[in-house]
Amino acid sequence: MKIYAAKDYADLSRKAANIISAQVIMKPNAVLGLATGSTPVGAYKQLIEWYNKGDIDFSQTFSINLDEYQGLSGEHDQSYRYFMNHNLFHHINIKIENTNVPNGLAEDAATECLRYNNIIKTLGGIDLQLLGIGGNGHIGFNEPGSAFEKETHLVTLTDQTRQSNARFFSSIDEVPTHAFTMGIKSIMSAKKVLLLATGNAKAQALYDSFFGPVTPGVPASILQLHNDCIVIADEAALSLIREKTGWESVTYDN
Ligand code: F6R
User: For residue 34, which atom of ligand 1 is closest to its CA?
Assistant: First the structure.
């Protein structure tokens, strides 16, 4: 695991976009595992800027997203399909048919999970998985207590996650209660993982994930066992790690 300290959000976003674009340059038909949420938005903006300058070409690239709310169509402005279309896909030359997000309206959840797992297999696995992290250490929608060996599955969202995502809906009642998510097993099978964290609200989760025991109680802690995991975090998110470990430099390599 490598941790890189970013000066600020712009620096974090640029560093992340550099790693993603290097992946696409080295393997134009790369399979990018993508995330939604506030954290990766700056990296997506940076990728769009470099695409507009002609520096990066996504025409052969595939993507597979981590998760989607159950019950929302891709046209719903809070669905993750909508988020990806508007924050990235519609602004670059990735072929929309090469992008994958679970179908929130799938009639049968088990069939949808199977379909999604098969996409990952058919694509030959994920080359680079981008992740944010929840304040409780969740990755994707794998909440504390999730079994490490799961692939794509349907989860019941915790109150904490629903409360935290309520800011995007007009009321908490509108936040879906269930979501499809890639499981920890799917995430761990990605060849490279890039986790981004910003702000004080992530400091405890970041410390617990990378300096505490590997436990389902902190889902991201499993990443300690991934052999190519990069973390980029700003100083606020790193504050507890710095305080408790005395680590002072800008890169940490274990
Ligand atoms: C998003 C996802 C979530 C978020 C996490 C952090 O697809 O799977 O795990 O990465 O909740 O969200 P933000 O970035 O909004 O703090």
Answer: 7
